[in-house]
Write a structure and sequence with these properties.
The protein is an alpha+beta fold. It is built from 3 helices and 6 strands.
Length: about 130
């Protein structure tokens, strides 16, 4: 893949026709599945670059005349075979909080009379000032 520059080297870019085959290989290396892209160029001079995913039909259109990118939906970046917007296995593990223990700690701190409400809140949320 060739890296080109505009404005005297200020703006790097690569050709659409070279980038998407690279992206296919990257997705394969990332174990996202075999994702192939078809690049179609339209306009005279060329101003529309249509990139279609062959496995799910989603597409991205680069319009250089309007400086715009149109994405057909969220499936363009999904793993091969995935049609859900967010898959369950991508969600982070939920954090569990022992609310009863937090309430008992807050009550004990309050009853001691040694702490302000702000100090109690900070201690319970992990924002205590260490010094």
């Amino acid at each position: 893949m060739t890296l080109y520059f505009l404005n005297g080297g200020e703006i790097p870019y690569v050709r659409v026709s070279e980038f998407f085959p690279f992206l296919s290989g990257l997705y394969t290396d990332m174990k996202k599945g075999d994702i192939l892209f078809k690049v179609t160029v339209e306009g005279q001079p060329a101003n529309l670059f249509i990139v279609e995913r062959e496995d799910n039909g989603s597409y991205m259109i680069f319009n250089t005349d309007e400086d715009s990118i149109i994405l057909s939906g969220n499936n363009f970046h999904n793993d091969a075979g995935v049609t859900a917007l967010v898959t369950v296995i991508e969600l982070p593990e939920p954090e569990t909080t022992d609310v009863a223990a937090m309430l008992l700690k807050a009550q004990a701190m309050k009853e001691s009379g040694l702490y302000t409400d702000e100090e109690i809140t900070a201690a319970l949320t992990g924002n205590a000032n260490d010094g």
